[in-house]
Amino acid sequence: MSFLSCPFPALVCNPFGLARDGIYGLLAAIVPEPLPTVALTVLGIAMLIAIIALTVMSQVWVERRAVAFLQERLGPNRVGPAGVLQSVADVLKLLLKEDLIPFKADRATFVVAPLVVLVPSLSVWSLIPWGPGLAIADVNVGILLVLAIGSFTTLGILAAGWASANKYSLLGGMRVAAQLISYEVPLVVSALVPVLWAGTASLQGIIESQATVWNVFVLPVGPIAFLVFLIAGIAEVNRSPFDLPEAESEIVAGFHTEYSGMRFALFFLAEYSNSLAIGALAAVLFLGGWQGPILPPYVWLFFKAYAVFLILVWIRGTLPRLRYDQLMHFGWKVALPISLVTLGATAVLVSAVQGTAA
Amino acid sequence: MVIPMELLVAGGFYTFAAAAIAGAISLIIARNVFHSALFLTLTLASAGGVFVILGADFLAAVQLLIYVGAVMILILFGLMLTPQDVELPNLSTPGQAISGAIVAAAIFVVSAATLLSAQWSGTAAEPSDVATTEQIGVSLFTTFVLPFEIASVLFLVAMIGAIVIARER
Q: Any chain A CB within 8 A of the CB of B151?
């Protein structure tokens, strides 16, 4: 396994695995099973959420600086060196802001909706493997479960749009529903290409199947499936050029028009977490996951996920927003047929390869 | 103090089961159609949780993907197009409450009697640790290929029918 190629001391190559085993050993000496396992899982989840929250703050700064660079502006550069602390200032500001709930809003739904968006976007991370044997939950229907959990986001956004009692929010919510349903189909179908190739739906299994060659380089289907996955992924996280749900020029801020303060920040956190999760999924499915030379596995996965996020930022800074009918046209008449043909071709290829091997 | 694994599993089951039942009851009690739909989502998602506890991982993922990800979204989509503050017309006739109560009681008695008189095997079935995805796939394409194809054709017919109805306007 390429994990062994990490030339540094074990503490650098596998700190999370060592910490896990160490803490487990300590706990197992004091309390009986399954308490150590449960405690360790809770600890792992807490750590993962902290890492994701910090990463999101870096993402916001990187995106603002990168888009500013693309547009020949400076971007945030006052708080801290080169503006790196801008996100900290933003979070403090959002925490202190008044939390408004519109008088005619449906209070309970309005309050719960951001959580329905945020919780799944964080839960997805518990399934992403960060190294060999290093995932909070390694299930054998991993990819299906990731996509299933991801679909909860739509529900929260719909509920937020409806509960706001604002026609722009409602329109934004409707747009999200239509868009996410349309693009979920090509996303799932193109994600099935690596599943067919690996012969398993487990994320670890898919990564291990790419030990010799990454799926994105498996000609002729790999690059096409990767491209469709990336485009559908951008649409799934509502980023430009597919950010019609929050098109400022048409429907104010879409589904989160009425949200302020920390509730608004929760939507933002979920959006950036989802962007990175799409990057991590793309890395797992097509870019070899945590595999890579010299550097430790968790660094590789993070690096690949962040690289895909940077591509999303680049696309955002480059392309204009699509019109709504163009979005639907592309989803159903271009992305879906391409992904279906790719899946069919992969099935033929896989059975041909297996036929010659057997 | 030793906490056996069975206790955790049972705790998980009762949590999901309680959530499913609470969602189902709230679904009927809720005055607002949109709230009812959200409670239905809770019930369906909790059923997915129960599948996880039973070791039916593929079924659980598909339950979430299809019901929460597609069916509920479409239902909510439809509800959002209907005005919020429209009072539903009261179509019930005076005697309806009584007859409804009688029918409900009858259904309850019959199902309770069936549940109580059924021969339950004493031990719970062991949750299989085998991956179910492959088994389901193989049985769909061998043993159950005819029902599977019939269901597919049925879906196709429904889809074409929906498009035809939508186009006539």
A: no
Q: How far does CA B13 lie from the centroid of its chain?
A: 16
B20 assigned to some structural domain: yes
Domain with B155 in it: 133-169
- The per-residue pLDDT for range A278-337, each reduced to its tens digit, is 999 898 888 887 877 777 888 888 888 889 998 988 888 888 877 778 888 888 888 899
Give yes or no: residues B73 and B138 share one domain.
no
**Start-to-end Cα distance in chain B:** 69
Place of tokens 């309005």: A110
Cα A55 from Cα A302, distance rounded (Å): 10
- Domain tally for chain B? 2
Provide the ipTM: 0.75
Instruction: Tell me the domain boundaries of chain A.
Output: 2-357
Rg (CA), chain B: 21
Domain end, chosen from B63, B85, B107, is at: B85
Residue that is written with structure tokens 């449960």 in the block: A38
* Helices vs strands, H then E, count in chain A: 15, 0
Assess whether pLDDT exceeds 60 at residue A183.
Answer: yes
The answer on pLDDT for B16 being more than 80 is yes
- In this complex, the residue of B41, B73, B133 whose CB is nearest that of residue A181 is B73
Say if B128 falls within a structural domain.
no
Tokens of A39: 């405690």
Here the tokens at position A110 are 């309005």
Domain boundary (B46, B63, B85) is at B85
Q: Is residue B97 part of a domain?
A: no
B8 and B79 inside one domain: yes
- What pLDDT score does B129 carry? 59
- State how far Cα A223 lies from the chain centre: 20
pLDDT > 70: percent of chain A: 94
Give the CATH number of the domain where residue B15 resides: 1.20.120.1200
**DSSP category for residue A320:** P
Contacts for A26 with CB less than 8 Å, ≥ 6 apart: none
Mean pLDDT of the region B96-118: 89
Q: From the candidates A104, A152, A157, which should be mutated to test the interface with B, based on the most B CB atoms within 10 A?
A: A152
Single-letter amino acid code for the residue at A7: P
Provide, as residue numbers in chain A, all residues whose Cβ is less than 8 Å from the Cβ of B63: 148
**pLDDT greater than 50 at residue B132:** yes
How many other CB atoms are found less than 10 A from the CB of residue A293?
Answer: 9
Measured distance CA(A310)–CA(A314) in Å, rounded: 6
Contacts of A201 in chain B (CB under 8 A): 133
CB contact under 8 A, B57 and A32: no
Q: What is the DSSP string of A255-299?
A: GGTT--HHHHHHHHHHHHHHHHHHHHHHHHHHS-TT--SSS-HHH
Helix axes A152-163, B72-80, angle to 10 degrees: 20
d(CA A176, CA A184): 12
Same domain? B4 vs B80: yes
Report pTM: 0.82
Residue among B53, B46, B42 at smallest CA distance from B12: B53
How much is the pLDDT for B83?
65
